[in-house]
Write a structure and sequence with these properties.
five-stranded mixed beta barrel, 4 helices
Length: 135
C-alpha cells in the first residue's frame, strides 16, 4: 500500500492544529499593550530611535588632517543612515564647514561630532562641532 497520502494528511493536520493553538494563545493577549498590533505601532519609541538620518551626530576622533585636499581622516562610530559600521576613513568636508584657520588648527586626537551625508557618492562632512567634554 502507498502510505504517502496518509503521511501528507498527518502533516497537514499537525500544521492546522499548531496554527489553531498559536491563534488561541494570541487571542488571550490582545488586551496587552503592543500585542495584536504591527511591530511599528507596538513600539513607537523603538522605531523612532531606529530611524537614522543625516541629522544624527556621530562621535569621531580626528586621525589626520589634509588641509590641501579639504579632508579629515576620522575614527568614527556607526553611521546608521549610510549603513556604515564604525571604522577609520577619510571624509571630504563640504564647503563652508570649516574655515582655513579652523582646519589648520585641527589635529590628530581631537574629539569631534559630525553630521555626514552622501554627496556625489562620497560620504561628506556637512557639519562638525567639538565633542562634549566627558563628565
Amino acid at each position: 500500500m502507498n502510505r504517502f497520502p496518509a503521511f501528507l494528511a498527518a502533516i497537514a493536520l499537525t500544521l492546522i492544529a499548531a496554527a489553531s493553538l498559536a491563534r488561541a494563545q494570541h487571542q488571550g493577549h490582545e488586551g496587552h499593550e503592543g500585542h495584536g498590533q504591527p511591530a511599528a505601532a507596538a513600539a513607537p519609541a523603538a522605531s523612532a530611535d531606529a530611524t537614522a538620518s543625516s541629522q544624527d551626530w556621530i562621535a569621531a576622533e580626528v586621525r589626520r588632517v589634509d588641509a590641501a585636499q579639504q579632508k579629515l581622516t576620522l575614527k568614527h562610530g556607526e553611521i546608521r543612515h549610510l549603513d556604515m559600521p564604525g571604522m577609520t576613513m577619510p571624509f571630504k568636508l563640504a564647503p563652508g564647514v570649516l574655515s582655513a584657520a579652523q582646519l589648520t588648527a585641527m589635529k590628530a586626537g581631537d574629539k569631534v561630532e559630525v553630521r555626514i551625508e552622501s554627496r556625489d557618492g562620497a560620504p561628506t562632512i556637512i557639519e562638525l562641532r567639538p565633542a562634549p567634554a566627558p563628565n
